[in-house]
Amino acid sequence: MASYDLIVLGAGIVGAACAERAAGEGLRVAVVEPGPVGGGATAAAMGHLVAMDDDPAELALSRLSLRLWERYADVPLAEFSRCGTLWVAREARELDGVAAKVARLAAAGVAARRIEAAELYELEPHLAPGLCGGMLVAQEAVVYPPRVARHLLQLARESNAECYLGRRAVALTAQGARLDDGSELRGPVLVATGCALPELLPQLPMRSRKGHLVITERYPGRIRHQLLELGYADSAHGDADSSVAFNVQPRPTGQILIGSSREFGVEERAVSPPMLQRMLERAFAFVPMLRELQALRVWTGFRPCTPDGRPYIGAFAPRPHTWVAAGHEGLGVTTALGTAQLLVEQLLGRAPAIDPAPYAPTRMLR
Q1: End-to-end CA gap in the chain
Q2: Which end of the chain is more exposed for a tag (fewer CB within 10 A), N or C?
Q3: Contact, 133 vs 120, CB < 8 A?
Q4: How many Å apart are CA 198 and CA 267, to the nearest integer?
Q5: 182 phi and psi, to 5 degrees?
Q6: What is the pLDDT of residues 2-17, one digit of tens each?
Q7: Reduced to 3 states, what is the DSSP secondary structure of residue 144?
Q8: Contact call for residues 291 and 281 (beta carbons, < 8 A)
């Protein structure tokens, strides 16, 4: 029976980041992944590195992680592009809320500023007429999540992590984890399996939230910034069965990535034409030019979502030597590196960089 200091179950971007961080600390790490590395929620993520300010805990974790992402700014494999984020206001009331957002971000060390309508159209000439202005966060960026996950796992391997690819953990044992081939691994276990978390830890509630994405052919320069509507958080954090929000991203390839949709209670992976149309119409309302472009691919994925919208990061107290890093919903890419730091700090008994209490898995146990 092979023994490790940490057995990471799941090689999405969160699991891969945790493996890389732990292996880099000199721990003997194993990674178990049944499918393609970064092939789950990671493959259906837009890759936006963004500071979300609606929840103080979310902002703290985002900000911690954004600092760590800077080391990948010059890594070609990451496809890191500092396009900045432009939040767009359709109505005056949305623009009126920008001052408070700028202040919250400034308090966290994130530079943002309000922009008026004239500058909005200088920055993005293809936006629909009649918009009120918005908020610019110039230093934010995008990456290509599946490739980053593979890169992080390769870094872990270079620090002597062992990978069990094509293998699934079917049970947690008193000493570690049992795999689907009957073999057992001994050591502390980190469950980073996203939507599949309840298969191993049914005590922790988790819902899957389906989303659609569209990527176009190459149209360099048509869109310059990551664009979101200022009402985006209402969709992302709401509990409606289905919702859409304007979210468009320029890729370094010249392609344009279009989101976003969210659906609870849907299990099939097939593209839903009505939901896709609804999502695209939302995007067309902000950028009419998108109607003229040729789509290259449409796909779906599932985001792991906890009841309160905050991820589980930390020890799962009812089971000794069991840890969790899952449930990041739409912020898994942004917060992957911060999650890894926070998790490994706790694992090693170090003082954490931020308060871990808001993410403690035990908060959901009654």
Answers
A1: 35
A2: C
A3: yes
A4: 15
A5: 90, -10
A6: 999 999 999 999 999 9
A7: coil
A8: no
